[in-house]
Amino acid sequence: MARTALAADPHALQVSKEARVPDESSQARPGDVALDLGDGRTYVDVTVVNAFSAAHLSASRSAGSPAVAAERAFNKKIEKYEPLFVVDPSLPGRKFVPLAVTALGVWDERSLRWLRRFSDVCAAASATDSGFAFASLMTKLSIALWRGNSRMMRAGLPVGQPSWD
Q: What is this structure's pTM?
């Protein structure tokens, strides 16, 4: 995402990797990247969740749905970090945007809406077609997800072999 914003307009979008929200005593790291889309500082955090983990399956049968898992991951991030972004009149506009996706590539609908807006801003800054910008962004994110899944699988130790005795 940072590369996409920097390619569109490195000065106008003011992209940076920030460890935590400035002027806060909290050590929480609510954003993987911070950028300015013209309406204040936006802290974007990407969350990848396994839709079929025991935690999601134990709640209900529908919890095994990738869409439900992405929605719950989004809500969990909002609950955790939204209090850091309570509007303070003395500080410029700041907001937190979690982007929730399952390891299978299913996105939370709110995340997709924000990604569409982000690609529109980048397209306008670089004078490209917004549909092409969105497709390009989603391709890059899909490849990053695939690469992350591959690394996780290669780094993992095999689970015990089943016993057929």
A: 0.75
